[in-house]
Every structure is written in C-alpha cells, then in structure tokens.
Design a protein that fits this description.
single chain; mainly alpha; 130 residues; binds methyl (2R)-3-(furan-2-yl)-2-(pyridin-4-yl)propanoate
Length: 130
C-alpha cells in the first residue's frame, strides 16, 4: 500500500541519519569501511560475516532493512566481529573492542531515545505481512 511505502521511506531516512551521526565519530573510523584483505590477509578466514558502516548505508538504500531491529542486527555484527578478531590483552585490541562496544551502545541509545515504538511495530508488521 502507498502508506506502507511512506512508512518504509521514513524508516530509511531515520536510519541514514542514525548511521551518519555514528560515522562522524573519529573513534569509529575502523568500522567505516570493510576491512581491507590486502592489509589484513587472514581477516576473512576468521570473520565469516563481515560488516561495516558503509555496507549498512548501501543496505538502507537497497531497502534491505524493514525495521530498526534488522538494522541493529548488523550493528551487533560489527561489534561481535571486532570482539572476535581482536581478543587480546594488548592496548590496540582493547581499544578497538572498547570502540566496538561504544558504537553498539550509541546505536541502541539513539534508537531507544528517538524511535517511536508504534512506528517500529508498524514497520515490523509490514515486513511480516510481506
Ligand atoms: C574492524 O577493524 C578491525 O577489526 C581491524 C582488524 C585489523 C587488524 C590489523 C589491521 O586491521 C582493526 C583495525 C584497527 N585496529 C584494530 C583492528
């Protein structure tokens, strides 16, 4: 229905805005683009489901998120990948793990604060009706 398309359009506009605010933060720069296999040859042997913020922006534009819940699944993936690939005690691993946790918390905090729960449920209902 037309109104359903209007709802999904509003979701895409909101999710782009959330992603843009996250991507502005310098501390999240390592999550902005896919890890480069040239720089990190074993990354894709270890991490089976890579994810990054620019891939998420492309997924918004390809209409691959039908709710904020779907969007947060990929945020969780960015975080879990970073915790999995960088598990060591050394300062650089600890720093990227901390930033990965901060990224997740920022995404959840923005959505909890700024997403109307009825709007989210409407998006979920549209997805399940299709
Ligand atoms: C999401 O980014 C990562 O997981 C890479 C993996 C990586 C290891 C070496 C080069 O890159 C990373 C980048 C910067 N600092 C720590 C880890």
């Amino acid at each position: 229905r037309e109104s359903e398309e209007a709802t999904l359009r509003e979701l895409r506009i909101f999710l782009r805005e959330v992603l843009s605010r996250i991507a502005l933060e310098r501390k999240f720069r390592n999550f902005a683009k896919a890890v480069d296999p040239e720089e990190v040859p074993d990354y894709f042997a270890v991490i089976k489901n890579p994810m990054d913020l620019s891939t998420m922006m492309n997924k918004i534009n390809m209409h691959e998120y039908t709710s904020a819940k779907d969007f947060l699944v990929d945020i969780d993936l960015i975080t879990s990948n970073a915790l999995e690939y960088n598990p060591d005690q050394d300062p650089s691993d600890r720093q990227i793990r901390n930033y990965a946790c901060e990224l997740k918390d920022m995404a959840y905090a923005i959505i909890d604060a700024e997403m109307d729960s009825d709007f989210e449920q409407t998006c979920v209902d549209i997805a399940t009706s299709r």
